[in-house]
Design goal:
The chain is of the alpha+beta class. The chain has helices at residues 3-20, 25-29, 49-71, 89-113, 122-141, 154-172, 182-196, 224-239, 244-251, 267-273, 275-281, 315-341, 348-353; strands spanning 38-42, 45-48, 201-211, 258-262, 293-294, 298-309, 344-346. Residues 1-13 and 22-34 have low confidence and may be disordered.
Length: 357
């Protein structure tokens, strides 16, 4: 599928998602007479037990990682109830999950305020999930194309829909709260250009390459050990003072002196086709020879014959990316401010009753 097809597919799915969530606001209202117990409210919007439990389950691995790295704690029967620095992993996990839920509710509240969604409660989300999965079942039965999975899981759909709500907010907010003027974008560009927009260096190398095993459908020629032994010979001869280009002509297939260029323009294709060589090439100074290394079923030694800085991309070249990055930064700052000022009321009894195992 081409880029245009991918964009169209994403747009169709996003439209289906937003059609589902706002459209069930009325159905949600019918359940308010017997609401599910809430762990907390955020500006009056309840955080349901189910929403909290689902997020808590996703955060368990973070708790293990945090207490392993900071306190050298190991998983075991008493892991969740053993205090470290005055806090148990169970309490840390609940605090972290509550923070995440507060942030989500703040984002949903903002999305409702901007007319992106009409309902923000988790029951409405679950109904949207059922509606979307039913739509997908019917489409499959009718032989119609669908984009994405055949059926969404609860967590998968929630992450997907929240990501699209954030995208929709970031598109709408620059006209209002974020005020992404050209002056602001240029100031942001100046502050990050050496980190984000430096093109790096263009490095040109010669290579000695000794392949092994079966490559590109050709019969096996050398085993890995045989190829390594042969490259050890090359290394010794280089160290004894023989010229790189002479050895390349002797050892390379066809006697060819392989020359490769690694630069900003080649970075994406390099990752999939010659990532190991690029990493080694970028370490080299002009005139320097690399150590022997293995990449893509071959052993290599490189020599850098040219290295030159490419400079920083001009603002005009990267203005679209600058805007996206700036808006993401300002959006995060806005949500942080709204989270800080949010009215959060916690039901401690409900929170304490939720197991963490």
């Amino acid at each position: 599928m081409g880029n245009r097809g991918i964009i169209l597919a994403a747009a169709m799915l996003m439209a289906a998602v937003f059609a589902a969530w706002p459209g069930i606001a009325a159905a949600t209202a019918a359940t308010e007479d017997s609401p599910e117990p809430s762990v907390a409210t955020v500006n009056g919007d309840p955080v349901s037990v189910r929403m909290f439990q689902r997020r808590l389950a996703r955060n368990r691995s973070l708790a293990y990682l945090h207490f392993r790295e900071k306190h050298h704690a190991s998983p075991g029967p008493d892991f969740w109830t053993t205090a470290h620095g005055g806090l148990t992993p169970g309490d840390w996990l609940k605090q972290r999950t509550l923070q995440d839920c507060v942030r989500t509710k703040v984002e949903l509240g903002l999305a409702k305020e901007k007319g992106i969604v009409a309902a923000t409660d988790y029951h409405a989300f679950l109904q949207a999930l059922d509606k979307e999965n039913e739509r997908r079942r019917q489409a499959l039965a009718a032989g119609e194309p669908i984009y994405g999975p055949q059926q969404y899981g609860e967590d998968q759909f929630f992450l997907y829909i929240m990501n699209n709500i954030r995208i929709a907010l970031q598109r709408r907010l620059p006209e209002e709260e974020l005020r992404a003027s050209e002056e602001a974008l240029r100031q942001y560009y100046e502050s990050v250009k050496t980190v984000r927009y430096d093109r790096g260096n263009r490095v040109i190398t010669w290579a000695i390459e000794i392949p092994f095993g079966r490559r590109h459908g050709y019969p096996e020629t050398l085993t890995r050990d045989q190829a390594k032994a042969k490259m050890d010979e090359v290394k010794q001869r280089l160290e004894s003072g023989e010229r790189f280009e002479d050895l390349a002509s002797e050892y390379n297939e066809g006697g060819v002196l392989n020359e490769e260029t690694f630069d900003f323009e080649s970075r994406l294709t390099d990752k999939s086709h010659r990532g190991g060589r690029r990493a080694e090439a970028m370490k080299l100074s002009e005139g320097e020879t690399s150590e022997m290394f293995e990449d893509m079923s071959a052993f290599f030694i490189l020599k850098c014959i040219q290295r030159e800085p490419l400079g920083i991309q001009a603002f005009e070249e990267v203005q679209r990316d600058v805007r996206i990055a700036y808006v993401e930064q300002e959006y995060a700052a806005l949500i942080n401010r709204l989270v800080k000022s949010a009215n959060v009321e916690v039901s401690q009894a409900v929170l304490d009753s939720i197991p963490v195992r």
